Amino acid sequence: MWSVDQLAEFLDGVADDPLYALWHLAALTGLRRGELLGLKWIDVDLESRELTVCRQRIEITGQLIDSLPKTDAGVRTIALDRDTTEALEHHRPSDWSSPAADGCVFCWPEGRPLRPDWLTHRFAELIKALKLPPIRLHDLRHGAATLALASGTDIRVVQEMLGHTNYAFTADTYISVLSAQSRAAADRSAKVVRARRAGPQP
Questions:
Q1: What is the pTM of this model?
Q2: Please, what's the b/e burial string for 30-54 (b: 16 or more CB within 10 A of its CB; e: otherwise)?
Q3: Residue 161: inside a domain
Q4: Residues 83 and 152 in one domain
């Protein structure tokens, strides 16, 4: 998984890519590949800075199919940060509701759908061109969760963001980040107490 600096380098490096908003969205919210490709503009509320995940686009025997997310918890509403919202605003075409585009957020300019395998290949190409350590597209999902937890986001919020069915799975997956977060919280608490003590400090 990339460090925060490597993620920032990637986002800087793909700033002019036509799919910049997709890479940014994946890196900050942890949406799965199929969820990114199944996202439609009717699911996005830029004014309220949130989007709803209610479908995923998958490929079966050469056919692209829209289906429900993997689990009931996969249907969810996600809050968007200001930078991601701005990226989506710049990405949205003036005629996003045309039948040819099928209302999809991420597609070819003429509205043709993107294929999941192509997206994975494109991600690998960009990483190679930027000379960054190779990771999978799915690793952006793990990176988004780690980043959120490291910044102090409650794990139940992260659970909902990722669409995990239960708390335990999220906690077990990111236990190392939670441990580091707990130690940092303990240090902050001790610092508050130390600042208020009148006697000599050890």
A1: 0.84
A2: bbbbbbbbbbbbebbeeeebebebb
A3: yes
A4: no
